[in-house]
Amino acid sequence: MKKEFEKLFEPVQFKSGIKINSRFVMSPMVVEGSTYEGYVGEEDLSYFERRANVSDLLISGATSIAKDANAFGYGLTNADESYLEGMKKLAATMKKNGAKAITQLFHPGYAAKYSYQENKNVYAPSAIPFSFLDYPTTELSEAEVEQLVRGFGEAALRAIYAGFDGIEIHGANHYLIQQFFSKTSNKRSDKWGGSLENRARFALAIVDEIQHVIRENAERPFVLGYRLSPEEIHEETVGYTLDDTLYLIKQLNERELDYVHLSLFGPSGYRSKAVLGNRTGEVIARVVKENLNNATRLIVAGDITSADKALEAVKYADIAALASAVIVDPEFVEKIKVGAENTISLDITNRLEELKLPRNFYLVKSAMTSNKSIPQITLDAIK
Q1: Could you read off the pLDDT of 180-221 as tens digits, one per residue?
Q2: pTM for the full model?
Q3: Of 253, 251, 337, 250, nearest to 297 (Cα)?
Q4: CB 107 within 8 A of CB 69
Q5: What is the CA radius of gyration of the chain?
Q6: Number of domains in the chain
């Protein structure tokens, strides 16, 4: 490899004891390869087998902890024991070439549009109208909130039994955990809403529940990470700022997670700067890194589509998460390692079949458009 990229292949040690040999991970991405009920499908397995060499740490796409929480149509679910055998196959496929496999657990909350189509009901922290939804929401009762916390723990236990090496809690991208943290979507007056402390309570209760499950049941080194969107700002509407996120980071520091994962979108991606608050204009990843304890690694995602961008990303964070780049070029990391980074291709013309993208992948291809790096010819090829 070229000397300038050696930093990308420095090893990283996690608090749990797991070690990876580069500063790359495969970012969690919904790929629409499951059955409509959320069971692992053959297309899921083919997709991950094709990318089993991307890095030493692979993170699955968002996996719902509840049957009545379908956000994607053909996304993964881990809602009860009936999903365990498929999860075992998925973990084994992700690990077949020696990588560690992480499963990302989430609940979509009001974003469960497919569940609404079936059941005419979706849950949210508060039953308020949202301008971007064409259906109403149902407010979770306190008992239902507490059951969801337990549900995350139960899904974590199944992940351990399935053979995964870790769990990422999905607190980003406007799904239920973020909905509780946001004062835009959380208008509750009980202990789960109102103050910043109360709005963070759901996220932290889930972290505590899963940590307890890991301590009691994992007989091997087991990673726990937390993914978050550092700001929620919609024009004049502010759900929370980076200052609020730093409060959450402080609470996560006390729990000594293995990593925090920043989900960043848009043309700036990993370089995104704070829009409001005391750190306005500063690179978000740098600010978060400064506020993390030394034992917790920072992963950053967003527009890391070249070797140079990856190198810049690890100036701000410990690890670069690859998403679109390894959808379209699974050999991305290997090409940098052998000094062939100039052959990385974001154009999938005549390569679609060998990339093993599920037939329903087109349903989520819009997620690849935010950073403007993926060429239109590639987007057009995904139909």
Answers
A1: 999 999 999 999 999 999 999 999 999 999 999 999 999 999
A2: 0.97
A3: 253
A4: yes
A5: 19
A6: 1
Residue listed under structure tokens 């990422």: 168
Structure tokens at 171: 């607190």
The torsion angles phi and psi of 224, rounded to 5 degrees, stand at: -130, 120
Give the position of tokens 């679109």.
324
Digit-coded pLDDT (tens) for 285-313: 999 999 999 999 999 999 999 999 999 99
The confidence score (pLDDT) of residue 265 equals 86
User: Which residues does residue 300 pair with via DSSP β-bridges, in sequence order?
Assistant: 262, 320
The answer to whether 324 touches 378, Cβ cutoff 8 Å, is no
Please state, in angstroms and rounded to a whole number, the distance separating the CA atoms of residues 53 and 96: 9
Residue 197, SS3? helix
When pLDDT is cut at 50, 70 and 90, the band that residue 160 belongs to is very high
What is the spatial distance between Cα 102 and Cα 264, in angstroms, rounded to a whole number?
Answer: 20
**Rounded Cα gap, residues 356 and 375, in angstroms:** 19
**Residue 262 sits in a domain of what CATH number?**
3.20.20.70
- Amino acid (1-letter code) at residue 255: R
Domain that holds residue 304: 3-381
Among 272, 317, 260, 335, CA closest to 10: 317
- 31 neighbors 44 (Cβ within 8 angstroms): yes
End-to-end CA distance of the chain: 36
| Residue the block writes with tokens 């992940």 | 159
Backbone angles phi, psi at 365, to 5 degrees: -65, -20
Q: Which residues pair with 139 in a beta bridge?
A: 124
Residue 205, CB-side half-sphere exposure with 13 Å CA sphere: 19
Q: How many CA atoms lie within 13 A of 318 on its CB side?
A: 22
Torsion of CA 261, 262, 266, 267, to 10 degrees: -90
Q: How far is Cα 70 from Cα 67, in angstroms, rounded to an integer?
A: 7
The helix/strand/coil state of 56 is coil
Report residue 150 as tokens: 């337990």
Tokens of 64: 């719902």
Region 249-271 average pLDDT = 95
Beta bridge partners of 299: 261, 319
The first and second tokens of residue 288, run together, are: 């978060």
pLDDT at 370: 78
3-class secondary-structure state, position 363: helix
Place of tokens 């995350």: 152
Structure tokens at 235: 């024009």
At residue 169, the 3 state secondary structure works out as strand
